[in-house]
């Protein structure tokens, strides 16, 4: 991708739109389903967010990173939206993990 003076702003706006989509428009999509299909989930985004902060010398806890991604404390979001994984989801997750060990 060609870098322009606006690249950072474009990437930031895209990231904000992805978060809005995952949090407000599709909270019904479970993290485990994202992991099965895409190899990442909202928690992965929070981990990447924290890694990026650390790369810039900004210390951030795991809870702080998750709150930045979820828009509120993770425990609140989880209680409202996350369901226990089914046996089928767990089996599919394990199969995906074996097929793509670098993702999980």
Short description:
This protein is mainly alpha-helical. Helices cover 68% and strands 0% of the residues.
* CATH-level-4 superfamily name of the domain at 29-99: SMc04008-like
CATH topology of the domain at 29-99: SMc04008-like fold
Give me the Rg, rounded. 15 Å
What's the overall average pLDDT, rounded?
Answer: 93
Helix/strand/pairing category: mainly alpha
State the end-to-end distance.
Answer: 26 Å
Helical stretch count?
Answer: 6
Q: In this structure, how is the largest beta sheet organized?
A: none
Portion in beta strands = under 5%
What is the helix content? 55-70%
Poorly predicted regions are none
Count of DSSP strands: 0
Give the H and E element order: HHHHHH
What top-tier CATH class of the domain at 29-99 fits best?
Mainly Alpha
The CATH architecture classification of the domain at 29-99 is Orthogonal Bundle
The geometry reads as globular
Structure, explained:
The chain is mostly helical and 104 residues long. It has a domain of 71 residues: SMc04008-like fold. Helix content is 68%, strand content 0%. The chain has six helices and no strands. The two termini are 26 Å apart.
Map the helices and strands.
Elements: H1 7-25, H2 31-38, H3 42-55, H4 62-70, H5 74-81, H6 87-99
Helix pairs in contact: 2-6, 3-4
Task: Give keywords.
single chain, 104 residues, 6 helices, mainly alpha, SMc04008-like fold
């Amino acid at each position: 991708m060609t870098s322009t003076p606006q690249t950072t702003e474009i990437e930031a706006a895209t990231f904000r739109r992805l978060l809005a989509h995952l949090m407000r428009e599709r909270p019904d999509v479970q993290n485990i389903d994202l992991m099965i299909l895409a190899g990442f989930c909202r928690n992965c985004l929070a981990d990447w967010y924290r890694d990026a902060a650390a790369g810039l010398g900004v210390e951030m806890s795991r809870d702080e990173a998750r709150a930045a991604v979820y828009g509120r404390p993770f425990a609140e979001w989880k209680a409202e939206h996350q369901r226990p994984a089914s046996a089928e989801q767990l089996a599919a997750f394990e199969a995906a993990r074996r097929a793509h060990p670098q993702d999980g």
